[in-house]
Amino acid sequence: MYLAIKHIHLTCIVLSLSLFLLRGYWALFSPSHLQRKWVKVVPHCIDTLLLISAITLAALLQQYPFIDHWLTAKVVALLAYIGFGTFAIKRGKTRSSKALFLVLALLCFGYIVVVAINHNPLPWT
């Protein structure tokens, strides 16, 4: 069961990032595309499945945020990623601010991946 959940989780990560990049591109260069119904629904479905699979993996592995520091770091970085992503796609006022928030969100995403691989909240040490 663990491997199936892990594969679902990894697939959702790839899908979520791909759609985030597409929506980020559209936010910068073709905002009207963001008004399509599927663009408003599908990412939330994928992200919900991603969160459910993450919680399931944590329970299966008996590793939990606020107990295991690397998972705590991932949760905090995820919140930053969501915040920056919101400004990159919806709330940014100018193209340059949206681009800045897109880069910040992607840096958070990269940090999350490195922490997940190394199980270390300070992976550069």
TrEMBL record:
Transmembrane helix found in the keyword field: yes
InterPro entries reported for this sequence: SirB
A single cellular component GO annotation: plasma membrane
Keyword list, A-Z: Membrane, Transmembrane, Transmembrane helix
Keyword Heme in record: no
Pfam families: SirB
Transmembrane feature ranges: 6-29, 67-87, 99-117
Protein name as catalogued: Putative membrane protein
